[in-house]
Amino acid sequence: MSSPQNTYTGDSSSTSFNFAFDYLNTSDVKASLDGTLTTDFTLTDQKQLTFNTAPATGVVIRIFRDTENDSLSSEFSPGSAIKASDLNTNFKQSLFVAQETTMSADAATATASTATATANTATTTANQASTDASNAVSTANQASTDATNAVSTANTASTNASNAVSTANSASSDATSAVTTANTAST
């Protein structure tokens, strides 16, 4: 199937671009710059389009056919003569519209496939983030438990230290009494 479009990239100096597709009417030839439709051109040859201003560097230029499909190119009345050229034009119109529809469907399918792949990647990332968050919560809960246990151990150590100080003070008092008794006995 012949492609009903040609694409180029602007270079800020070129204005004329050739295209390879056939068309029925010059009004069927369209152009877009970075996806925006433009009428800032003329057909300078049967298969050459010239922009009034050179597209900027990096601009995606798309020259395409958009065949009129609201009515037939030629209509026939009962009893009228049918010319081969009129039949051929109608068949070309149908062929061109079918080619353009196929191209649009292919582009839509490619876009949908890309969107699906992006959505699948996002889902995988979200699932991993959920798993990571659950692991982080579990780690935080374990850290909280460990901190509570550490506080309990520190409180026990503090109580034991206080008891040791009391015992030491009591022993000191007993030693002082013993010294006093020994001094009295010595006297």
Q: What's the end-to-end separation, in Å? A: 130 Å
Computed CA radius of gyration, to the nearest angstrom: 45 Å
Multimerization status: single chain
**Which structural class should the secondary elements be placed in?**
alpha+beta
Q: Total strand count, please?
A: 7
- Give, in spatial order, the strands making up the sheet with the most strands: 1-7-3-4
SSE run: EEEEEEEH
Mean pLDDT, all residues: 91
Question: Helical stretch count?
Answer: 1
- Strand content range: 15-25%
Instruction: Estimate the global geometry from the Cα principal axes.
Output: rod-shaped
Biggest β-sheet description: 4 strands, antiparallel
Unreliable residue stretches: none
Helix % is 55-70%
Annotate the secondary structure layout.
Elements (H helix, E strand, L loop, with lengths): L4 E5 L6 E3 L10 E5 L2 E3 L2 E5 L2 E4 L8 E6 L18 H103 L1
Antiparallel strand pairs: 1-7, 2-6, 3-4, 3-7, 5-6
Please explain how this structure is put together.
With 187 residues, the chain is α+β, with helices and mostly antiparallel strands. The chain is 55% helix and 17% strand. The strands form two sheets. The protein has a four-stranded antiparallel beta sheet with strand order 1-7-3-4, with no helix packed on it. Strand 3 (29-33) and strand 4 (36-38) form a beta hairpin.
